[in-house]
Amino acid sequence: MANYTAADIKELRAKTGAGMLDVKKALDETDGDQTKAAEVLRVKGQKGVTKREGRSASNGLVVAKVEPGVGTLIEINCETDFVAKGDPFVALAQQVLEQAATVKATDAEQLLSSDLDGKTVQEVIDEANATIGEKIVLKRVARLEGETVVSYLHKTSPDLPAQIGVLVSVKGGDEQVARDVAMHVAAFSPTVLSRDEIDPETVANERRVAEATAKEEGKPEQAMPKIIEGRVNAYFKDNALLDQPFAKDPKKSVAKVAEEAGASVTGFARFKVGV
C-alpha cells in the first residue's frame, strides 16, 4: 500500500486542483511522493487536453484590474465549481489578468497569442488544463478607458469566486457615482450604453411587434401611436443603460442620476460566467 495519508491527498489537490481519484492514482503510482505525483498528474493531464476539447466549460470566474484611466476585465472558464474556487485556478486567472493589462489586450485572441515568460498565454492555459485535469478556456476580455474607471465584482454564491464582473467609465463626478452605476449594471444587465447604439432594424422590428400586439389586443386606433411609442421606449429601458430606471432610485434614469452628480457615463463592460 502506498505511503500517504488523507492529508497528503488534500495537500496535492490544493496544489494542483486535480480531482481526488486522479490524485490518489498518482500517489499510488509514486508511493506517496508529492513532487513525483504532481509530475505524473501533469504528464497524464497533458495527454488528455485534446480529449477535453469537446467538454463544456460553463463554470469559472471573472477578475478585474483598474489602473488610472483604464480597466481590464476577463472571464476564464472551467468545467466544475470545485476547480473554479481552487487556488490553482484562481492564481491562473490572476496571472492571465495581469498579462491582459500589461499587453493592453482588447480581445481573447490577442491575449492568448501574447508572450508570457517565453510561452504564449494559450500554452500557459494548456499546462494548467493538464495539471488540473479540466477544460480551461479564456472566454473573453474587455478593456475600458475613461476619465474615471471603476470595477465591481459580484458573487452569486458565497462559496464561489465572482461570477459577474463590471467595468464602468465616467466623465466628471466622482468614483462613488461610477461605483453606484457599476452595481446597477451588475443587477440590470444592459446590453448597450445608449439607445443610439441599438441597430435601427432592431428598433423597427420592435415597433412592428408593438403595433401588431396592440391591434391583436383591440386597442383603439387613435391610441396606437402612443401605445407603440410606449412599448418601444420600454424596450430601450430594458437594454440601454442610460435609459434604465436607476437601481437606487427608480424614479430617475441612470443618465439623470449621473447628470445630477455632475457626471456622464461614457462606457461599460459586463461579463457573467456562462452567459
Describe this structure in words.
It holds the Pfam family EF_TS. Associates with the EF-Tu.GDP complex and induces the exchange of GDP to GTP. It remains bound to the aminoacyl-tRNA.EF-Tu.GTP complex up to the GTP hydrolysis stage on the ribosome. Its main location: cytoplasm. This is Elongation factor Ts. One of its GO terms (cellular component) is cytoplasm. By secondary structure, the protein is an alpha+beta fold. Among the domains are: 42 residues, Orthogonal Bundle (Helicase, Ruva Protein, domain 3); 144 residues, 2-Layer Sandwich (Tetrahydropterin Synthase, Chain A). It contains eleven helices and ten strands. The strands form four sheets. Strands 1-2-5 form a three-stranded antiparallel β-sheet. It has a three-stranded antiparallel β-sheet with strand order 6-7-10. Strands 3-4 form a two-stranded antiparallel ribbon. A hairpin with a 2-residue loop joins strand 8 and strand 9. Helix 1 crosses helix 2, helix 5 packs antiparallel against helix 7 and helix 9 packs across helix 10. The longest helix has 17 residues. The protein is elongated, with a radius of gyration of 24 Å. The mean pLDDT is 91.
Structural class estimated from helices and strands: alpha+beta
Q: State the distance separating the first and last CA atoms.
A: 46 Å
DSSP helix fraction = 40-55%
Strand content: 15-25%
CATH-assigned fold name of the domain at 59-192 and 263-272: Tetrahydropterin Synthase, Chain A
CATH superfamily of the domain at 59-192 and 263-272: Elongation factor Ts, dimerisation domain
Order of helices and strands: HHHEEHHHEEHEEEHHHEEHE
Family: Belongs to the EF-Ts family.
Protein name: Elongation factor Ts
Subcellular location: Cytoplasm
GO molecular function, one term: translation elongation factor activity
